[in-house]
Design goal:
The protein has 152 residues and is α+β, with helices and mostly antiparallel strands. It is built from seven helices and six strands.
Length: 152
């Protein structure tokens, strides 16, 4: 592999209206990514879906986040976790769509992608050429490529 955008690119599916949380979870788990691109009904890249956002708004009541340091080992308020999980994965994806962050072209240097991720406090950036999503670059993907480089 090479140390350019093409060498660290992770292709993923595109999330579209009518899809479900289950599909996002499956793809993110399979590709080891945190977020996926969202195309609107006009087939335009218009947002993103992140695992963190889904979990935050579906699984964590706000008071639990604010008082996390006070939570003990006995969580009697969390009953029927499996039932709740089934409900969440069956939810339509539309309520979870977030604003699209900056994207980068595959022609740009990899160091620029890394700088943009740092600037936006993100671990990934979507690669888009002429309005078409190509995949994403992740910090983990860059580290993996670097770890496989020869020491020569």
């Amino acid at each position: 592999m090479t140390m350019d955008i093409q060498g660290v690119l992770t292709p993923t599916i595109i999330i579209r209206p009518g899809m479900f949380v289950r599909e996002v979870f499956a793809e993110c788990g399979k590709k080891h990514v945190q977020s996926l691109p969202f195309y609107n009904d006009k087939n335009v890249l218009s947002g993103k879906i992140s695992l963190k956002n889904i979990m935050k708004f579906s699984c964590l009541p706000e008071h639990m986040v604010e008082l996390a340091h006070l939570l003990g080992n006995q969580m009697s308020c969390i009953k029927n976790a499996e039932e709740k999980a089934r409900e969440i994965v069956g939810n339509p994806i539309e309520p979870y769509v977030l604003k699209l962050n900056e994207t980068i072209s595959s022609k740009e240097p990899l160091i620029k992608a890394l700088a943009m991720m740092e600037k936006n406090n993100n671990h990934y950036i979507f690669v888009v050429d002429d309005g078409e999503y190509k995949g994403q670059i992740t910090i983990q993907g860059i580290a993996e490529v670097m770890s496989n480089m020869d020491n020569t």
